[in-house]
Amino acid sequence: MSITRDEAKAELQNLYDNLWLDRGTRVVFLDFTVYNANINLFCQIKLTVEFPASGGAVASKSFATVKLIR
């Protein structure tokens, strides 16, 4: 996602326009891993947004840090 709210909103609208998201979407997962070479650590990030049938959005996050390289 973008840094500014307007850019993020435009990206979400693009997902709706290209049928990646619609009223039937119940959950969106965003998983990625980053590496910090200065401290030799990987961090796995999982961001989740659930859209219950009753409406609204429920966001959650998970972070796991691990040292894999000696």
UniProtKB/TrEMBL annotation:
The keyword Transmembrane applies. It is found in: Membrane. It is a multi-pass membrane protein. The keyword Lipoprotein does not apply. This is Polycystin domain-containing protein. GO terms for molecular function: calcium channel activity. InterPro entries: Polycystin, Polycystin_dom. Its main location: membrane. It comes from Rotaria magnacalcarata. GO terms for cellular component: membrane. Belongs to the polycystin family. GO terms for biological process: detection of mechanical stimulus. Keywords: Membrane, Transmembrane, Transmembrane helix. It comes from the Eukaryota. Residues 3-69 form the Polycystin domain.
